[in-house]
Amino acid sequence: MQKQIIVLIGGPGTGKSTLINELVARGYCCYPEISRQVTLEAQQRGIDQLFLEQPLLFSEMLLQGRIKQYEDALEEPDNVVFIDRGIPDVVAYMDYIGDEYPAHFTKACEDIKYSKIFILPPWEEIYESDTERYENFEQAVTIQNHLVETYKKYGYDLIEVPKDTVDNRILYILDKI
């Protein structure tokens, strides 16, 4: 079986981390979303919201972290690796806030390709804000639209995961791979 590096995407609060955690519990190799880690490290240095205060620095850190995740996934012994968010997410978020970014951001999106992209739709009933997720639901929907546009721009066919129980969403994803 050929290595599959599969990414779960979607706007904030669509259930990506919940599904990644369940896939881990079922024994799958998974890489978590790294933006919370970057945000928490910045908060420990006294920067409340790095993405809001220094979006390019935040995005550069995410880009490098996601490139490393991809490279690490290639070295995993598992044939299937799941990742919570991919490299094009960085570009989508920068487009969302309207900031410019260096050419190496788009080059990374062009050069590094994932096997499959599963997108989780906005789901108001499960949406929650917290200290790292500052967007309201309407903003989450706008971000979702940027994600769809960005991933399609880089040639991906998006597989939408239906709103359902965690177990049924996992079964849907596993059935598609």
Automatic annotation (TrEMBL):
<feature type="domain" description="NadR/Ttd14 AAA">
    <location>
        <begin position="6"/>
        <end position="169"/>
    </location>
</feature>
<dbReference type="Pfam" id="PF13521">
    <property type="entry name" value="AAA_28"/>
</dbReference>
<dbReference type="InterPro" id="IPR038727">
    <property type="entry name" value="NadR/Ttd14_AAA_dom"/>
</dbReference>
<protein>
    <submittedName>
        <fullName>ATPase</fullName>
    </submittedName>
</protein>
<dbReference type="InterPro" id="IPR027417">
    <property type="entry name" value="P-loop_NTPase"/>
</dbReference>
